[in-house]
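Run folding on both entries below.
>entry_1
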Amino acid sequence: MTRPREREEVPLPVAAPRTLLPIGAFAQAVGLSASALRQYGESGLLIPTEIDGRTGYRYYAPDQQRRAIWIRRLRDAGLGLGKIGAILDGDAAEAERLLDAWLTDAAERQSAATALVADLKLSLRARVENNPVHRTTAGFDGAVLANAIEQVTAASGIDGFHSVLMDITDGEAAVVATDRYLLLARLAVSRRVSGPPARVSFTPGSVAAWLRSRRRVDLVVESPIGRNGRKTMHAHFCDDAGHRRELERERDLLPSVHALLQDRSGAPTRIVFPRTEVLRVSRSTGSLSLIASEGEARLHSDAGVAAGSADGRAVSLELSAATLTRIAEAAVGPALSCDVDEPGAAVVWRAPSQPDFVALAMPQSR
């Protein structure tokens, strides 16, 4: 008689033990000190996973490392613990608002620090120099700058506005030209800038031809403080070989393109056309009508109609055909977009293929 098989015992599964890191190992892994981790734990910003009730030792889970690294990076950037907690624990929209506000504040503090350092350096030099100068330097690729100068000069040439402006602000240099009705600019031709903000208007002449054959050039702007009665600004280009090109300065009559763009308010209507179509219909003998509604846009002239897309409120305005031709010819790429703000405000044209290109043109009275 066969004996029944004994039932095999199947062991119950055992949960794998969690791998917790003691405070020292965790601190080394995330680049923080143990004292900082204790502070974050007491504030509730980064609470240990476990605390040994007998020894008080703190243990952290590996999945807490990401939060710890974000806390370290935000602290290194200058944010306080309360704001860090609100960013990491709040909803996404509030976190973005706090980050944007902090970024704006950081930029303002950087601007103030740059001005402070420039003024202090000038004061220190004044102890030993008779007439120290504010010195600003912007570095360029010569060919890129030459192209930018030639590109914006399509807006210059009448009523004394025949100069080009180099507008050097915090961290970037723009090239601007205008005839009072049309303004063309390249906003970020260089980001290699040192020294305080500076502006210099000059006659373009053959400057672009001189620049085109240079790989790297520096624009140097020197403004004496006028202690000995001399306050005349001096500006020149200098290439890698030490060759200089003095600039024939003009009166600074041009507006700040950055201020013009920042002064705009509200949500503009964004309109996009094929650039070739804009060129086709803008080569007319009169003005053009720009009409946009319900997602569609039309540009009408006696040369035909150009179709495009629109996003925003309904728009109806008149534009100068000659001005729009100059904008479309100066722009590059397959598309041309414009932002239309409140009635009577300048229309802002851009070339998506060249993000730092901008043109401001006033609409015509109807």
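>entry_2
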Amino acid sequence: MRNEIELEAIIEDYLKGKLTADEQQAFERLRANDPIVDHRVVAHKVFLESMQQYADILLLKEQMDAVHKTIDVDSLSDDLKPHPSKIVRMWRNNKSAIAVAASFLVLAMVMLYSIQSQTKKDGSFEALSREVNKISRSQNDLIRNIKSNNTPKSSATPAKFGGSGFAISSNGYILTNYHVIKGADSLYVQNNKGASFKVKAAYTDPVNDIAVLKISDLSFENLGSLPYSIKMTTAGIGEAVYTLGYPKDDVVLGDGYVSSKTGINGDTLAYQVAIPVNPGNSGGPLIDNNGNIVGVINGKQDKVDGAAFAVKSKYIMEALNAIPQDSLNRRVAFGKKSSLKGLKRDKQVAKIQDYVFMIKVYN
């Protein structure tokens, strides 16, 4: 806990320019070599900017109140008639104050819009009040309500919400987003044939928004060898990609391309992708034309069509490496070539859909 507090203090000093030249160089080397630290810097920068903009709005409100007090409101009583000469005279007598008030009003509206446009992953502003926390949710986590009647017999109530996930091994390890399962009392996955299996969290990484689930249901039969692999290198801008997920009760294909190598506000954790996604797509795989997984869908920008975000595949690899290797069998989604290379899109989807699951969350 102490190290976390010290890191936040160093990040704040770095962003405010309080570090010495040597300290700044050392921290920038750490940031370049540690993506988690880099992600924390981006998140803290957005936090500080949002707090400053909120303070600026409060100051503007005080200034507008002060300007309003300088205007002779009594002169605008009911006996004032809409005669052109009186209106002109009123403008000439108060035009400076009115102009200042109008400028403040326009500036306040612009700044408020700027704050409302600040978007970040779920959890970036959890420490703030409810009103400010609403701003952080302008990037919608793609969790959807599930109203299916196919509730597992072991659960007394329907699932509250869920998302998507995909197999990273043939023996029941499923990868999804951390925000999909956060706070869950119990978890199930459902395959494309409608069969549900109980799972438990095997690994969670809130910073990178990744969770690995393990199917613990005795009725589960091991999957065949995974058809896809995980891409070890970075995807390029303009590279064609697609995703499979569960925004409804059967699997849905989303098609597009990588539009930026960074996520929202320059976040190096994620790609921005031009793919239409909907609640329920969180946790779905992002796949290139050769059948390599390049990321995992985890969000979209509010009110912007086709601006989705996906956690990069390097963090999927970190999650795999964090799981004890004796827990995984040999048929995992890395260290081999994709069997999908050279196939047309429909043939790839036909092979992949058995390995993509709906995540059902109960709490």
